[in-house]
Specification:
This protein is mostly beta strands and 672 residues long. It has a 22-stranded antiparallel β-barrel. It has a five-stranded mixed beta sheet with strand order 1-6-7-4-5. It has a two-stranded antiparallel sheet with strand order 2-3. Strand 4 and strand 5 form a beta hairpin. The radius of gyration is 24 Å and the shape is globular.
Length: 672
């Protein structure tokens, strides 16, 4: 198993903490996450609290934020990744306690590998991200922050398709030493029902309801952390291992009955944090190792028999510093670098793949300039990146890639309850090693890819009801615009393999809104809506003015629950995703889907365990009626289509999960 030393970032209750926020308070206790009203960036802070059902995972919680869209390969535990504001999956950088899991968009992070029970909060930064991350992705940043609370918590659940979920958390403080740990086990057969039209849209006689085969998985993961405080400094060590073994079932029309994938991942970071009278800083060293072993002896995934092992390895160092020499002037800087490597071995290939590596350096300098009694904040940032590709022996692109990317955030707070925001900036992402050279299964590389470059801008408004009201009400609304050059898109061919290509110029624009309501200590409600329009601005007639693949024009998320002193809570959820195309030519389109969920939980007293029954896809929806030929707007014929997501992978019908949870030591407001 790979190992690494990891130190988490931003959640401690001491001033040395490196809180990823635009507001620097070096002498005050760190808040439990950034304040969305005091930063120019569009940020949503999500918590798995009492209103969150036990069936929720990281993907479903992230999807509840405005501007997000999650792409899945099935049900509980299956692959899931997030897109923000129409950006690609690689345009979103995912951090674990401030440590990048895909630095500079190197790869797509599978959110299913990250157990929701491990996290005290999830921060979704859309567009402009704080300097402390040392990142400037076109889409945004998702930062997962692990629990810090003393005490312990355990839960266990059993549900449909022989699904078993169990996790445990514990923490202990002794003087200047403290430590905590989390572990989770997930096992499921994943053998749900789905609709198969046998790839014949015009023939209804060969349609069948089938059972999803080879969709089992076993996942074991968690983290362990130890910290020591030494005067003005604190030292941390964390290790976060993961083991995952799963079948690869394939798409609806090309099922795979024997292909399997085993993943071993380990993340760790060593961190030193310090603070003085007007400054605070940290140094973080991390190592991320990942081993993926694919066995597809029958060539079910793409026609080629494979027995392949992919080894990826990243070692990085990042130093951050913030200061507050004056109330109106709060500069910050981040310097970092990492080495990423990929080694692919296929025992059935005629030639060995060469080991590949690259070096990446980043630097970001910014400041908060506060005027008008803190009613006006300007946040200019300059981000620089340099990439050395000399160790990529067969790359066709530039040996050195560099970019200086400016961005600016503006925050106006005319009253305590109203915030006006605007952001804009330039971004760059070089193709990662998988995009250039391929990976296991049906992902083929393209060493001739060009770096993606683009501009992002947004504006928004946030309003909060006065705290004296019996109803807590928060409204967020905004508009966004993304324009990119040489956008990299994975395009599916007739053999069901995927190859990345540069699209030239593309544009995504849209609006997003979110409403959070808590009324009379009885009702909790969260609603988000995102509408977006994507266009391929290519001059090629086959693609010109087409929608970008996997960019739904409309998504809606709603979660509402009613409770009585947390002794009984009943909740309902709605997730709607409009039909969207899978391919660049806009010939193949998924069905729109409306999924309902519900849960009921009972807990006689806070000292007792809670018992919860949660249901996903309450109406057991497997199909939708869709246009038979989406490429021909004059064809009024309709066809029955399976409810699928990314690349034709079916989603499950009704799924039940019964969970027992005991969390006597967590704060009342955080107990799910």
């Amino acid at each position: 198993m790979f190992f690494l030393f990891s130190a988490p970032a931003a959640f401690a209750a001491e001033p040395v903490a490196d809180v990823p926020s635009e507001t620097v308070q070096v002498e005050a206790p760190a808040p439990r996450g950034p304040d969305p009203a005091s930063t120019s960036a569009a940020v949503t802070v999500l918590r798995a609290d009492a209103s969150t059902p036990a069936s929720a995972d990281v993907a479903s919680l992230v999807e509840s934020a405005a501007g997000t869209s999650v792409q899945r390969l099935g049900g509980l535990g299956d692959f899931a990744a997030v897109s923000i504001r129409g950006a690609s999956l690689r345009h979103v950088e995912v951090f674990l306690d401030g440590v990048p899991l895909n630095p500079d968009g190197a790869g797509v992070v599978n959110l299913a590998e990250l157990p929701l029970g491990a996290f005290e909060r999830i921060e979704v930064w859309r567009g402009n991200a704080p300097v402390s991350f040392g990142a400037a992705p076109l889409g945004g940043v998702v930062n997962l922050v692990t629990w810090q609370t003393d005490g312990g918590a355990v839960s266990a659940g059993y549900g449909s398709y022989q699904t078993i979920k169990a996790d445990a958390y514990g923490a202990l403080t002794r003087g200047k030493l403290d430590g905590n740990a989390f572990a989770e086990v997930l096992s499921t057969q994943g053998d749900y029902r789905y609709f198969d039209d046998n790839a014949t849209v015009f023939n209804l006689l060969d349609d069948h309801i089938r059972i999803r085969a080879n969709n089992d998985k076993l996942q074991v993961g968690g983290f362990v952390r130890g910290r020591a405080s030494l005067g003005d400094w604190r030292l941390s060590l964390t290790d976060a291992p993961l083991y995952r073994d799963e079948g690869l079932p394939g798409s609806v029309n090309l099922p795979a009955e024997n292909a399997r994938l085993t993943t071993i991942r380990n993340l760790a970071v060593a961190r030193a944090e310090g603070h003085g009278g007007v400054w605070a800083g940290s140094a973080t060293l991390w190592h991320l190792g990942r081993r993926e072993a694919l066995v597809d002896l029958d060539g079910e995934l793409d026609g080629a028999a494979r027995e392949e092992t992919d080894l990826s390895d990243t070692v990085g160092l990042r130093v951050t510093a913030t200061a507050a020499p004056a109330a109106w002037f709060q500069p910050s800087t981040t310097l970092g670098g990492h080495r990423e490597a990929l080694d692919v071995t296929d025992t059935r290939a005629t030639e060995d793949e060469p080991a590949r590596a690259r070096l990446v350096g980043t630097a970001a300098v910014g400041t908060d300039l506060r005027f008008w009694n803190d009613r006006l904040t300007l946040s200019p940032v300059v981000q620089g990146v340099a990439i050395d590709n000399r160790q990529l022996q067969d790359a066709d692109g530039d040996v050195f890639i560099s970019s200086i990317d400016p961005r600016l955030g503006v925050l106006v707070r005319p009253t305590r309850w109203l915030s006006l925001k605007a952001n804009g900036g330039h971004y760059l992402r070089a193709p990662d090693l998988v995009e250039m050279f391929g990976n296991h299964g049906n992902l083929e590389g393209n060493p001739s890819l060009l770096p993606e470059r683009g501009w992002q801008a947004d504006c928004g408004i946030r309003g909060e009801a006065p705290r004296t009201w019996p109803v807590r009400l928060t409204v967020d609304a905004g508009a966004f615009w993304l324009a990119s050059e040489d956008r990299i898109v994975w395009v599916q061919n007739s053999q069901q393999s995927f190859t990345p290509v540069n699209f030239g110029e593309t544009r995504v624009q849209g609006v997003e809104a979110a409403l959070e309501l808590q009324a009379f200590n009885l009702v909790d409600s969260d609603t988000s809506v995102t509408w977006q329009q994507s266009r391929n601005l290519s001059t090629d007639s086959a693609y010109a003015q087409n929608e970008l693949p996997r960019t739904p024009p409309l998504t809606i998320s709603e979660a509402v629950s009613v409770h009585w002193e947390e002794r009984v809570r009943v909740g309902y959820s709605l997730s709607y995703t409009a039909a969207n195309f899978w391919d660049a030519a806009n010939l193949y389109r998924s069905a729109h889907r409306t999924l309902h969920g519900a849960f009921v939980r009972a807990q006689p007293t806070p000292k007792w365990p809670s018992l919860e029954l949660s249901v996903l896809n309450l109406t057991d929806t497997l199909t939708e009626v869709v246009p038979r030929n989406p490429a021909d707007p004059d064809d009024a014929s309709r066809a029955v289509s399976a409810i699928t997501d990314f690349a034709g992978y079916p989603l499950p019908g009704r799924t039940l999960l019964l969970t027992v949870r005991w969390q006597p030591s967590l704060p009342k407001e955080d107990r799910p």
